[in-house]
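Two quick folds needed for the group meeting slides. Do the first one here.
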Amino acid sequence: MFEVLRKTRLCVISQMELTIEKNRVKMLGKGIFESYRLSNFLEKVVFIAFPDKKMHKRFIYNNGKFIIYCLPTTKPKIRPGFKGILSTLLDIVREYILTFFHIKKLIEQEKINLIKVENILLLGFPAFLISKYKKIPYILWIAGPELKVLEIKMAWLQYLSKIVSIIFNILAYVVVRGASVVINISPESSHLILSKKPRIYVFLKANYVDTNMFYPRPCRLRKEKYVILFVGRLEKEKGIELLIEAIEKINKRRNDFEVWIIGYGSMYDYIRENIEKKNLPIKLLGRKDIRELSNYYNCADIFIFPSLVEGPSAALLEAMACGVPVITTTGPVKNFENGILVEKNSDAIARAIIRLLDDEKLRKRLAINAVNFTRKLSERYLRIMYKLYTVAVKQMIHSHR
């Protein structure tokens, strides 16, 4: 199996936003680090993503086997108001064209023979066009319900939401059917994907977690109270408002805890304003490199994931792997066995947090079960992914005969 992969030059086209500080890329999130690890087994891995500010750079790692390229544009932002929407749509069209030609150039330059693309709407269609033009197979990775996320973001403008829904379904039909393999970890996306009749469809119940990086160890950071931790993008669909409401309710009853929030996004100012206005015990810690996260997980007493959409979070599994009891609205958690599943409302979240703060035995039991669960999960995930990459590569070899 590995012999086939050793000749593979993989291009990962990611929707993530790269954070670049002091001319170095912060490895934020599972996608970029998993790609880095893959470069140990493949001939080369090229990772293409949006920069957090416009720049045209590349970063070389692992003796040239792993290269990160910045797209020549930033990730499109939805602007409010009619003029803002028109401006956003024009930006998306222009940046779509720029993105297509830039990725095409890099794929030719790096002699790529396999593509992995992480979503449908933003980058899936450019990947499809390049795949057809260059006759290179691609793997489509679906991590969440893109359409539902867009609907949440555009709830204030229903007519635009309907237009985007039509466009999305057309693109989904083309992109899903064109993929050699479709890998989905979002339960909410299953019906949509299957309705487009993919060639090979694989549903994974959980994301990947590197248990060599994330495992229980002593806390090395200063803490004086119980720590409730959130890690993720600060966006509406992540349930940020529910988290703030729950913390406000608990803060009226006790003062023996604090909340650490790691990440950045459009709701950063909303959180900061609530902290100041309501005197909430929340610390905004900003973005952290994935290699730093284990230190924070291992100091947390509770990890909270109040997402409004379905799909297993990488951060949720990283916390579980570090032996942190988790409270979540979604994901591969068996209630009161390896975590606590709650409804998507602030009262349920607040009750679960108080229950865990008051029950040390329950915290320990959930933590032990979570560690065992993620170890088994990680081994299974890697076996499946290597098989799927091999299938895609063999399709590529067969198509060139």
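Then this one, please, same format:
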Amino acid sequence: MPRVSTMDRPAVVRGLGVVMVALVAGSVFLTYAMFTKLFSDDVPVTIRSSSAGLQLNANADVKLRGVIVGRVDEITSEEGQAVIHLALDPEQQPLIAADVQAFVVPKTLFGEKYVDLQPVAQSSGQPIEAGDEIVQAALPSDVENLLTDLDPLLTALNPEDLSYVLTALSDALSGQGETLGTGLETLSAYLQKMTPLAPELVEDITLLGDTARTYADAMPEIGTTLRNAVVTGNTLTARRAQLQSLFVETAAFATSAEALFDRSGDDFITLARDSRPTLELLADYSPTIGCVLQGIDRLMPAIDSTFRNNRANVSIEFAPRSPREYDGRDTPRLPAATGGPGSLSPSCATLPGTRYTKKRPAPGMSDSLLEELGVGGDLGKRVPLTAPTVVRSGGSAAEAEQVKAIVAASLGVEPKDVPDVATALYGPVLRGAEVSLG
């Protein structure tokens, strides 16, 4: 029987095929096991956190001081919290403290995240063991919040427009590095100088806020003022011709006034100097100027009534003839002008229309004051020597006798000594008037 080659035997071929398939399958499985570290003796620990964050996937790196010490095995959810399962390298496990802190941070702005283990300041030094749990992990959320807020913006942006803007920005900044560096250095110098003034700057900003609130409260009044200013401006615009004429006339007046003062300046100075005593006197009597004018106004009806119908309607009282000549004994003695009773300081108390009368005289106008003045007796009291006489019939003998009696009483002579011409002169004046001889 001829000898058959081993490779030509079907059973051998089948066996070799099975071995080849087994080797290929073993290689694939070994590759998978090595990649997934199926046969590694990793130390399992967990991290509990409220959120694992975006872009933290299985097999992500676990680093300690920048050295890879493990990987993220899986991420699960339990009781509303994220449970991050870590597989630590058994060779690095003794170097990791049990009270280590874990941070989930990104490698780049948009890159994959990893777990960063950081020892605490006062570490116990006890190494972490399998099954340990980092209950709370401080996870930075600023970058994640930025990405979350940036996502709608990036979605809304047109990539072509964004590329155009970034290209223009790149072209603008190209070759400006030295200028930008100098500007940043200058800004840094300014900030260093301003840092000691930060409290004053904060205080100024606070005061600026108070001032802004004050202006805010006053804005209605400011608005009203501005509206009124607009109205005033419109009025001035509408009447600019009159305003221009006013300015021209004012300039002419100023020129005339300048010429007047140049010509008569010394006279004005002399007038001012000579007027000073008069003005000082008026200053002393200034409290009475107003009420004197009021008194004159009150007297005007009585004056109009006295001279009504073009005639003098008066009652004349003649005092008896003095038994002696006027001498120094009759000189009035003026009391001190203190403003009180018995004083001659300026006052309007005796003017017509005031609350003081002859029966109720004003303070300082009593009989004692009249006696001090050398007059004596009550003000306004006169005892008539004869009854009032009314001159009525014009040109008669009775009228002539009455006129002579009145003239004789005023002259201090006998009626028979009065010439007839006096009756002709005084008769028309006194005719119809009531005269009392006292």
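Slide caption for protein two: Strands lie at 43-49, 61-64, 67-78, 81-88, 101-106, 113-118, 133-134, 317-318, 389-390, 434-437.
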